[in-house]
Amino acid sequence: MTIKAVKSLSEILLESGKVSKDKLDKVLTMQLHNTEGLGRRLVDLGLVSEVVLLETLSESLDIPFVSLKDFPQQTIVLEDLSEKFMRQYKFVPLSLNENVLTIALSDPYDIYACDAVRMATNYEVKINLAREEEILDAVGKLFNTDTTSMGRIVEDIGKNGKDDLSIDDEGDVDHLKDLASEAPVIRLVNLLITRAIEMRASDIHLEPFEGDFKVRYRIDGVLHDMEAPPRRLQAAVISRLKIMAKLNIAERRLPQDGRIKLRVLGKEIDFRVSTLPTMFGESVVLRILDRESVVLDLEKLGFPDYDLIKFRDLINRPYGIILVTGPTGSGKTTTLYAALGEINSPEKKIITVEDPIEYQLGGVNQVQVKAGIGLSFANILRSILRQDPDVIMIGEIRDAETAEIAIHSALTGHLVFSTLHTNDAAGAVTRLLEMGMENYLISSSLLGIMAQRLVRVICPDCKEAYTPEMGVMEEMGVSQSEVKENPIFKGAGCEKCSHTGFLGRKGIYELLLMNDDIRELILEKAPSNVIKEKGRSQGMQTLREAGWHKVKEGISTISEVLRVTQVE
Questions:
Q1: Which pairs with CB-CB distance under 8 Å and at least 24 residues apart come from 272-279?
Q2: How far, in Å, CA of 349 to CA of 356, rounded?
Q3: What pTM did the predictor assign?
Q4: What distance, in Å, lies between the first and last C-alpha atoms of the chain?
Q5: What is the pLDDT of residues 412-444, one digit of tens each?
Q6: Burial bucket for residue 556 (CB in 10 Å: 0-12, 13-18, 19+)
Q7: What single string gives the DSSP state of each residue in 13-31?
């Protein structure tokens, strides 16, 4: 038997608190019109992750929960069990000990599967729990007919007789809604999202082209092509995402923005959704905001000790402006969040103005910019000053008006944090001057400017020493003797890092501190390269020099440092 006379799945989930009674009742009502198992339905609707569901059942029913990623060691071939039979009942044999056959099954309440296996083999059946996707992958490998999880879902959609899946601009919206609500389409979208979380992606890109439909994940700042649904499912997949984000699925001519909140792999994750009409349909990008994985600790961001001490001194000053510069995606906001978290205390009132608010900070007043109703950075900042703040964080200085208010705030006793898009630290001074700010006001208000980039970290599981090419060393500005003294490493690529050779990212920093010499240069409106050289003569490390230290420490590679600092 699969299980003895034990509690039902509903009772187990309610007692464990994994699903609320209201949501469970709603799904049970839907079950009256659906033949799928309750557990499968809960997973498909995103009410509980499959891993959390199986872990809960494993604990309550005392059935082992196993991972089949180590195939083929954990599976066996039996003549009485065909591939079609295993796929039908969604199980795979693990071991045979005397007269007891152990199988991996995703649904412990599926008595039909166990009875069918018992009748086909004449063995007693013992079950272990495993994820359905892993079971079907193991079956494919067992019979060398490896079909991907996405391929199996697409086959299911075809079997349901839904052949007319491509909807043009004049298509039937009701039909599209029905299609997007079909279980296989829901499962397909859930698979795309779950894979992205498993692979630590920060963004999911779904892009329609003339001949195909592309899916790309941004992992550690770099886009990678992924397995994508066929072109005919483009409308269904995009409509499903728009329904989840509460967007208008009938509107395909204008860009739309929305949010999705899901529990994926046991974690609460927010998705910021953006749609954009293109020549061949709507392009959709999901920004993944995983609060649990974001690092908001200055100690862990990658600062060298000497820069961390200086930066901590800056953020604890009573007033002035601290700027963080760099391109989009270089971690500026994360650094500012970490700084605010460190100085946050009951004695200080901190207000931020952001567009958009990416993560919620406890004890910090965060304001969202809404330009459509006149709530711009400048308008919000004027009101903020009447709120008696000690610390103000401005998401980005985009125009002269915002810059002027930021400088005025710093000169009237507030500590101001903000960001600018410039290539290096000294370039921020030039940018403020170009915005029309007076040189004496910049000189008086600035405390320090930090440029930063994110470099990918070599995967520790496949890390290996190598000798870089001469051209790369010359571009980096290092000699062969330096390379001989410091072994250089790279990642060969393995399962853990999805064969990229990298796992995670760390920051490299260029910290320019204001002192009498630098202020004098600002008053003289000196070019940024002169300010930069003066900073270097006083101990400032450039981004590339900071990157070379990461290479010598075996944290990153020369090519990676060159990639993120190539504008220098």
A1: 272/356, 273/241, 273/242, 273/244, 273/245, 273/247, 275/238, 275/242, 275/247, 277/252, 277/253, 278/207, 278/208, 279/210
A2: 21
A3: 0.78
A4: 68
A5: 999 999 999 999 999 999 999 999 999 999 999
A6: buried
A7: HHHHTSS-HHHHHHHHHHH
